[in-house]
Sequence to fold (416 residues):
Amino acid sequence: MTKPLEGIKIIDFTHVQAGPACTQLLAWFGADVIKVERPGSGDVTRNQLRDIPDADALYFTMLNSNKKSLTLDTKKPEGKEVLEKLIRESDVLVENFGPGALDRMGFSWERLNELNPKMIVASVKGFSDGHHYDDLKVYENVAQCAGGAASTTGFWDGPPTISAAALGDSNTGMHLAIGILTALIGRDKTGKGQKVAVSMQDSVLNLCRVKLRDQQRLDRVGYLEEYPQYPHGEFSDVVPRGGNAGGGGQPGWVLKCKGWETDPNAYIYFTIQGHAWEPICKALGRPEWIDDPAYKTAEARQPHIFEIFGVIEAWLADKTKFEAVDILRKFDIPCAPVLTMKELANDPSLRASGTIVEVPHKKRGSYLTVGSPIKFSDMKPEVTASPLLGEHTDEVLASLGYSRQDIFNLHEIKAV
Ligand code: COA
Fold:
C-alpha cells in the first residue's frame, strides 16, 4: 500500500519526547525518517529507565518506531560534511535541542536555507522566539506550569498539579507535525521551504483555551457557575482548580463504584448532560426528580450537585465500574469506567483497532506501544521496531554516494 508521505525524507535531529513523537507520526505515514544520533550514546532515552540490561529502554522504543538511525558526530568537520550532504537532499529537518544548539553547531536557519532552500526546518523549544524566557531549557512538567495547565489542574485545597498526559511533550510534537505538513503543502505552491517553530508553552496553552475563556468570564462576573466553588465557595481573581468538575454545561464528577475501598480505580466518570436528565432519573430509579423544580434545570441542580452525585454513588455501590457503564449506556448517558494502564494494554478493542500494538524488537523481544491514534480508510499505519543505535549508518552513507572505503575511513576517524 502506498503511504501518503512516501518520498518525503526527514532528518530527525530530535531527542527525548517532543521531537521524536512528531517524527514517529510522520514515519508511520510513510516518511523516510533518519534519526541522527551522537556516536556511542545516542538519544538519552535509550538509557533512561531501562527494564532490560543492554537493551534500549521502552521510553526510546515507544517514540522512535519506523525510523532509521544514523550515528554522526555533527560537531566534527567530517560529520558536518555528511550532514550537509543529507540536508541537500532532504525535505524536512526536525530538531528539539536546547536554545541555540543548532546555531552553535553551525546550522542556523540561514545556513540551512542556503544549503537547501526547499527544506522545511521544524523546531520545538520551551518558549517561543523572542519570549522573555526563550533561553530556558524545558521539560514536560515545566511546560505544563508555564502553559497554564498546572494552575488549573487538581483540587482547590491542594497545590498546582501536573497531568499524566504529555501535554508539553507529545502534544507539542503533534502541533509540530501539523506545522510541517502545512509547510509541505505550502512548498508545493511556492517551491520554497520555511521555518516552522512550536513552543511547548504555546502548545499547552492551546489545550488550556477554555481556561482562558473562564478567566475572562471571571473578570466580568466574578464567579464561574460550573465550578464546585459555586455557589457556596469563594472565588479569587484567577481561575481556580476545579477538581474533577466537567466543563461547559455538563456537570460531572468521578464517582465511586463497587470495590472502591480496595481498588483505587473502581470509579466511573459520570456526566449530567442537560438533555440526559430524564434518562438519568429513570436509570437511578428517581422518576420524581424529572419534574421537581429543585432538580429540573441545570441551574436548579448546581447548588446541591454534590448531594445528587452522592445519590448516584449510592446507586453505584453494588455495581462494578463496567456493570454501571453497561446500564448507563442504554440511557444515552455520557460516562466511562476509569481505566488503568493494565486494562488498556489488554483491551481487545484497542488491539483490534491498532491503537495498542505489539512490536517485535531485535534485542528486547516484543513490546507494547501505542499505534497511530489517527485512522484512515485507505491506509493502516504499520508500526515497526525502533532502530538500534547506528543500525542504518552504513546504508544511509552509501545512499549519499560514499564508497565502502569512504565509509570505512569515516568509521576510522570516528566521525560516525
Ligand atoms: N553530534 C554532536 N553533538 C550533538 C549531536 C551529535 N549528533 N546531537 C546533539 N549534540 C549536541 C548539541 O550540539 C548540543 O551541544 P551544545 O549544548 O554544546 O551546543 C547538545 O548535544 C544538546 O544539548 P541540549 O539539547 O541542550 O541537551 P540537554 O540534555 O542539555 O537538554 C532539553 C535537553 C530537552 C532540556 C533541551 O534539549 C531543550 O530544552 N529542548 C527544547 C525543548 C524540548 O524539546 N524539551 C524536551 C521535550 S521532551
Remarks:
- Residues 16-19, 36-38, 72-75, 96-98, 101, 104-105, 124-126, 137-139, 169 surround coenzyme A (CB under 6 Å).
